[in-house]
Write a structure and sequence with these properties.
3 domains; two-stranded antiparallel sheet; rod-shaped; 57% strand
Length: 282
C-alpha cells in the first residue's frame, strides 16, 4: 500500500561512511594546512627593543657622487720638464746689440805734399870755414848774424805703409733675415705654487672601503615587524617541559627555530622568548 520499504542501514555502512568523511576532511585540512605552511607567515611586531649589532672590520662599498667635489689645494709642486727639441726662432724686428770690435786695419796710401815755406829770420854763425887763399889752405873763423829771407817750395809724395789697431765698442741694430735654428736639450726645474679651490666632477662610481673602529654597536629598534614563514620554524616544548620527556625521546626534545634568513633569527628568538611560549635557539 505504501510502496517498497527501504533497506535498513547497517552499522558497517555507517562506519564506512564515517571513515570516508574523516578521510575527506583530513585531506582537505591537510591541503589547506600545506598551502598555509608554504604561502603564509607569522608577523611579530617589536617595539622599543634594544639590539647589539656586530659590524665587520671593513666593508667594501661602491658609491656614486652626484655633485662635484670641491678640493682646496695649497702646496708647492716641484716640476722637472725635460726638453729635447729643435726650435726655429724668427726675429722680424731689428735687434739692438752692442758691438765690440778689436782688429787691425792695414793702411797703404801715398800722401802728396806740396807747400812753399817762407823763411824770414836771422841766423847766428859761429863756425870755421876752410878755404884757399893764394893757393894756401886757410881756416877762416866766421862769427856773426846773417839775415835770411827766402821762399822755399816743397813738393813731396809721402808713402804711408802701416797697420792700425782698431778697438770699437758701439751700439748697433741688426736685422736677421733668416730665423735662428737651435737644438735645445736641457731640463727645466721649477717650484710651482698652487693655491686654488678645484671643483672635480666624479663621473664614475667610487670603490671605497669602510673601516669601523668599534665592531659592536648598541642600537634601539623603535618599530620592527618580523615575518616568520611557517615552513622556516618548528615548535617544541620549553625547557621546563623537556625534563618530562623520556631519555629515549630526548632527540625530539626542545628544538630551535630552523635556519631563518640573516637578521631574522635573533629578532624571532627574542620575541618568542619574551612570550615565554617557546624555547628558541639560533
Amino acid at each position: 500500500m505504501f510502496g517498497r520499504r527501504a533497506a535498513p542501514v547497517t552499522w558497517k555502512a555507517l562506519i564506512f561512511t564515517a571513515l570516508v568523511l574523516v578521510l575527506l576532511m583530513s585531506a582537505v585540512a591537510g591541503l589547506c594546512g600545506w598551502w598555509a605552511w608554504r604561502h603564509m607567515a607569522a608577523q611579530v611586531t617589536l617595539r622599543h627593543q634594544p639590539a647589539l649589532v656586530r659590524l665587520p672590520d671593513s666593508l667594501a662599498v661602491q658609491a656614486e657622487v652626484s655633485r662635484a667635489v670641491r678640493v682646496k689645494v695649497d702646496q708647492v709642486l716641484p716640476v722637472s720638464v725635460p726638453i729635447d727639441e729643435h726650435v726655429s726662432i724668427p726675429f722680424p724686428d731689428p735687434v739692438p746689440v752692442k758691438v765690440h770690435v778689436e782688429t787691425q786695419v792695414p793702411v797703404s796710401i801715398d800722401v802728396p805734399f806740396e807747400h812753399v815755406f817762407a823763411i824770414d829770420q836771422t841766423i847766428d854763425l859761429d863756425t870755421t870755414v876752410r878755404t884757399k887763399v893764394l893757393g894756401f889752405s886757410v881756416n877762416v873763423p866766421i862769427r856773426g848774424k846773417v839775415p835770411l829771407k827766402a821762399q822755399v817750395p816743397v813738393k813731396l809724395v809721402v808713402p804711408v805703409r802701416h797697420t792700425l789697431p782698431v778697438s770699437l765698442d758701439v751700439p748697433a741694430q741688426v736685422t736677421l733675415t733668416e730665423p735662428i735654428r737651435a737644438h735645445v736639450q736641457t731640463t727645466v726645474k721649477a717650484q710651482i705654487p698652487i693655491r686654488e679651490s678645484l671643483s672635480l666632477p666624479l663621473t664614475e662610481p667610487l670603490q671605497a672601503t669602510l673601516r669601523f673602529p668599534r665592531q659592536e654597536v648598541n642600537v634601539a629598534l623603535v618599530h620592527t615587524e618580523v615575518l616568520l614563514p611557517f615552513d622556516a620554524i618548528t615548535v617544541a616544548p620549553t625547557s621546563g617541559w623537556a625534563s618530562l620527556v623520556p631519555e629515549r625521546m630526548r632527540p625530539w626534545a626542545p628544538r630551535a627555530v630552523r635556519a631563518l634568513p640573516p637578521g631574522m633569527a635573533a629578532s624571532a628568538a627574542s620575541a618568542l622568548e619574551r612570550l615565554d611560549l617557546l624555547e628558541v635557539r639560533p
